[in-house]
Design brief:
single chain, alpha/beta, Amidase signature (AS) enzymes, 16 helices, 38% helix
Length: 486
């Protein structure tokens, strides 16, 4: 493996700014590895080497002219393919958007360009971000770099796998119910969902608008903080974008005296023994380092999956109504407008997307709205109050990120409920709008990564990253996956 592919994002940016390595050299090293690995991992849906090199040459030109391109100078950043990049294919891993080339950049893509990053391809995902294994992609599943027979997680599986395998040092994903943290845990990397509103959703193709949030993947907590710092901040084009100042994510310190609550509801039925053992060991290390570990209870969190799978499909059924074959993307044939709509959606949407549209349409239908969607929103509000009350007693919450390590491809594909339960420990943060981060805390007996999830109060990113840095120093270091068979 090229040494440049083993370097972190901050080190690469420093080397490019200091002319110890050129942006083109960094790009070429990652391109060589990505083009060699991608047939096995299938992390990327779209990667244009010449466009990557063109961006890198521009960074080198600016540095030669005495400019500072920004904190991500020359660093390749992979982009989940539900984020608009001007002129590049943006498919959401769906046939219905296969020919779509957006005429504008998402807000986070604008921020990356301004920070000097090199946009490094579009990564695979579950179609319209609806899934937990990337098996719902219309273009085939992403495979876990630690075991190619297993899932990389979802929906941001391509971004997680790209970072885990060293194909890109950083990546962006979106998290609606765990779609950054769950694949980060299964692939052994850092993945973080910010407070709702901290990062603009402008240019993110919507799944569930009150839940979606864009966040970073990296191999270290420092690099995740670097990427979040580059993309966070107010954007008037997003009505839900917060005007709160971006917290200082560079804070350092130990965990001594930090009050960490461990929700008992996160350690119940369905949690594998290997995951529990790794998380228990991580909590013991935090306690030995001076953290105050105490059991807490979030009784309403047990309803999280039920609430999520009413709210999210309801919002999806509304958001996806725009795909009608008239304005962009696939267009089916039909003798009438209604027939054309039906043919377009029948041909363009996959089975899971159709299932969620049906679920959401039913929950919003006359006679059922209050019984399902209305009641779910009331429980969601109560969950937020319960979470706020909990954070009056503790600084952070700690739990497993996922109930199991990476499962085999196909293992849950025929059982939607089993697949939905992959997110049982992550959906609460989305429903409550709070920030949460997953970092690797150990391995199973089979050598698969296990994730520890840390959750903070709204806009508590500074405390979250400070604690995650300290935890990272106490836990097993990132281990590279084996090279793919040839």
């Amino acid at each position: 493996m090229s040494g440049l592919c083993q370097e972190g994002a901050a080190a690469l940016a420093a080397a490019v700014r200091g002319r110890e390595a050129s942006a083109v050299e960094v790009a070429d090293a990652h391109l060589e590895r990505a083009l060699r690995w991608n047939d096995d991992v299938e992390a990327f849906l779209h990667l244009e080497p010449e466009d990557v090199r063109r961006q890198a040459r521009e960074i080198d030109r600016r540095i030669a002219a005495g400019e500072d391109p920004g904190p991500l100078a020359g660093v390749p950043v992979a982009i989940k393919d539900n984020l608009c990049v001007r002129g590049q294919p943006t498919t959401c891993a769906s046939r219905i958007l296969e020919p779509f080339h957006p005429p504008y950049d998402a807000h986070v893509v604008e921020r990356l360009r301004a920070a000097g990053a090199v946009l490094f391809g579009k990564t695979n995902l579950d179609e319209f971000a609806m899934g937990s294994s990337t098996e719902n992609s219309a273009f085939g599943p992403t495979r876990n770099p630690f075991d190619l027979a297993r899932t990389a997680g979802g929906s941001s599986g391509g971004s997680a796998a790209a970072v885990a395998a060293g194909l890109a040092p950083l990546a962006l994903g979106s998290d609606t119910g765990g779609s950054i943290r769950q694949p980060a845990a299964l692939c052994g990397v850092v993945g973080m969902k910010p407070t709702y509103g901290l990062v603009s959703r402008y240019g993110l193709i919507a799944f569930a608008s009150s839940l979606d949030q864009i966040g970073p993947f990296a191999r270290t907590v420092d690099d995740a903080a670097l990427l979040l710092g580059a993309i966070a901040g107010h954007d008037p084009r997003d009505a839900t974008s917060s005007a709160e100042p971006v917290p200082d994510l560079r804070q350092r310190g130990d965990v001594k005296g930090l009050r960490i609550g461990v929700p008992r509801e996160c350690f119940g039925e369905g949690l594998s023994g290997d995951v529990r053992a790794a998380v228990d060991a991580a909590l013991r290390r935090l306690k030995d380092a001076g953290a105050r570990i105490e059991e807490v209870s979030l009784p309403l969190s047990v309803h999280g999956i039920a609430v999520y799978y009413i709210v999210a499909p309801s919002e999806a059924s509304s958001n996806l109504a725009r795909y009608d074959g008239v304005r962009y993307g696939l267009r089916g044939e039909g003798r009438s407008v209604e027939e054309m709509f039906s043919e377009t959606r029948g041909e363009g949407f996959g089975a899971e997307v159709k299932r969620r549209i049906l679920l959401g349409t039913f929950a919003l239908s006359s006679g059922y709205y209050e019984a399902y969607y209305g009641r779910a929103q009331k429980v969601r509000a109560a969950m937020r109050h319960e979470m706020e009350d909990c954070f009056r007693k503790v600084d952070l919450l700690a739990s497993p990120t996922t109930p199991t390590a990476a499962f085999a491809l196909g293992e849950k594909a025929s059982d939607p409920l089993a697949m939905y339960l992959s997110d049982v420990l992550t959906v609460t943060a989305n429903l409550c709008g709070v920030p949460a981060l997953s970092l690797s805390c150990g391995r199973t007996a089979e050598g698969l990564p296990v994730g520890l999830q840390l959750t903070a109060r709204r806009f508590g990113e500074a405390t979250l990253f400070r604690a995650a840095r300290a935890a990272e120093a106490l836990l097993p270091a990132y281990a590279w996956p084996p090279e793919p068979p040839r």
